[in-house]
Amino acid sequence: MSQPLTGHCHCGAIRAILETSKTAAELPLRACQCGFCRRHGALTTSDPEGFLHIEAAPGSLNRYRFGQRLGDFLLCAECGVYVAATVDGETGLLAVLNVTGVALPGFEGRTPEPMTYDDETPDQKLARRKARWMPAVFVETQPSA
């Protein structure tokens, strides 16, 4: 693995550490076209061969489910930033990271690939997430930002 990419929400209560062998330029950058992601200006990335650590100060995380209610969208309870989305898989937690929400370096100036998932069935949505999202762990602790 190369140097981890790290970022945090606006207030610093939630920290994300992306361990990957890829550079930011090599990682995908996607712009989901759903109302939630557009309203948050979300640009997401993931590396199925990498690993995402999410650290949150106690009580600083809100989970939001919408649409088919298949995953948790993680928002900072302090500053309101959308940090990541997670889903439970057979092998554990899987996630996609909002690089905009955590100001992850290396993605500035890139044009994201627009993505529309409106026509997916719940099974198709879960299969896509299992194929594209990355293993993750969520820990409630004081982030060392």
Explained architecture:
This protein is mainly β and 145 residues long. The chain has one domain (5-140): Beta Complex (Metal Binding Protein, Guanine Nucleotide Exchange Factor, Chain A). 12% of the residues lie in helices and 38% in strands. It contains 2 helices and 11 strands, in the order E-E-E-H-E-E-E-E-E-E-E-H-E. The chain has helices at 35-40, 122-132; strands spanning 5-8, 14-19, 30-32, 44-45, 51-56, 61-64, 72-76, 82-89, 92-98, 113-115, 134-140. The strands form 2 sheets. Strands 1, 2, 4, 5, 6, 7, 8, 9 and 11 form a 9-stranded mixed sheet that branches. It has a two-stranded parallel ribbon with strand order 3-10. Strand 6 and strand 7 (72-76) form a beta hairpin. The chain is globular. It starts with a strand and ends in a 5-residue tail after the last strand.
Count of spatially separate domains: 1
Name of the level-1 CATH class: Mainly Beta
Treating each run of at least 4 consecutive H or I residues as one helix, how many helices?
2
The end-to-end distance, rounded to whole angstroms, is: 21 Å
- The total beta strand count reads 11
Order of helices and strands: EEEHEEEEEEEHE
Quickly give the CATH architecture. Beta Complex
On the 0 to 100 scale, the average pLDDT is 93
The residue ranges in which pLDDT falls below 50 over 5 or more consecutive positions are: none
Structural class: mainly beta
Output the CATH topology: Metal Binding Protein, Guanine Nucleotide Exchange Factor, Chain A
What level of helicity do the residues show? 10-25%
Sheet having the most strands = 9 strands, mixed
Taken as a percent bin, the fraction of beta residues is 35-45%
Based on CA atoms alone, the radius of gyration comes out at: 14 Å
What does the overall shape look like? globular
Keywords: Metal-binding, Zinc
Family: Belongs to the Gfa family.
GO molecular function: carbon-sulfur lyase activity; metal ion binding
InterPro entries: CENP-V/GFA, Mss4-like_sf
